[in-house]
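Hypothesis: this fold can be encoded by more than one sequence.
Test: take the C-alpha cells below, design a sequence, compare later.
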C-alpha cells in the first residue's frame, strides 16, 4: 500500500501540467465515466461494476483496510442494502497522463442496510485507467469524515 501512496503522490506532483495539457474531450470522457461509475454503485448494478472495476483493484475502505474487486462489488450490491441518491461536493476530475485520471469528491452516503438506516460522510478518490476503448477503476480510497450539523 505504501508503494501505491507513493505512486499517487508522484502522479499528483505532475497533475497540474497533465490537467492543463489534457484535451477537453478527455476531461469530458473521464467525467462521463466517473458519473456512470457512481451511478452503477448507487443503482447496485453488479454487471456494470464487474465491467467497470479492474480485476486487480486496490480498494482502501474508510477504516484503512485494503480489499479487492470482489469485496468492493459485494459491498455495493448486497440484497439487503438500498442507497439514497447522492450529491457530490467539491468534485475534482483530473487527468493524470495518457490513459489515467482520477475523480474525487465528498458526499453523504445514506440508505438502509439490513433494514436499518445509515448515514456516513465520506471523501473518495477513484483512479481510473483506460483499458482498450473504456475506463476501469484501478484504485479507490475512501476516508470517513464527521457528519456536520445541518
Amino acid at each position: 500500500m505504501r508503494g501505491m501512496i507513493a505512486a499517487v503522490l508522484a502522479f499528483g506532483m505532475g497533475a497540474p501540467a497533465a490537467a492543463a495539457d489534457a484535451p477537453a474531450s478527455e476531461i469530458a470522457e473521464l467525467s462521463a465515466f466517473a458519473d456512470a461509475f457512481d451511478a452503477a454503485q448507487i443503482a447496485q448494478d453488479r454487471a456494470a461494476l464487474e465491467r467497470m472495476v479492474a480485476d486487480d483493484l486496490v480498494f482502501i475502505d474508510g477504516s484503512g483496510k485494503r480489499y479487492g474487486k470482489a469485496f468492493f462489488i459485494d459491498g455495493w450490491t448486497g440484497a439487503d442494502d438500498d442507497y439514497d441518491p447522492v450529491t457530490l461536493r467539491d468534485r475534482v476530475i483530473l487527468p493524470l497522463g495518457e490513459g489515467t485520471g482520477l475523480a474525487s469528491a465528498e458526499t453523504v452516503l445514506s440508505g438502509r442496510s439490513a433494514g436499518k438506516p445509515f448515514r456516513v460522510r465520506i471523501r473518495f478518490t477513484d483512479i481510473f485507467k483506460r483499458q482498450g476503448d473504456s475506463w476501469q477503476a484501478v484504485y479507490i480510497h475512501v476516508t470517513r469524515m464527521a457528519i456536520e450539523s445541518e
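Residues 51 and 112 are 26 Å apart (CA to CA). The beta strands are 53-60, 66-67, 81-83, 89-97, 100-113, 116-131, 134-145.
Hypothesis status: open.
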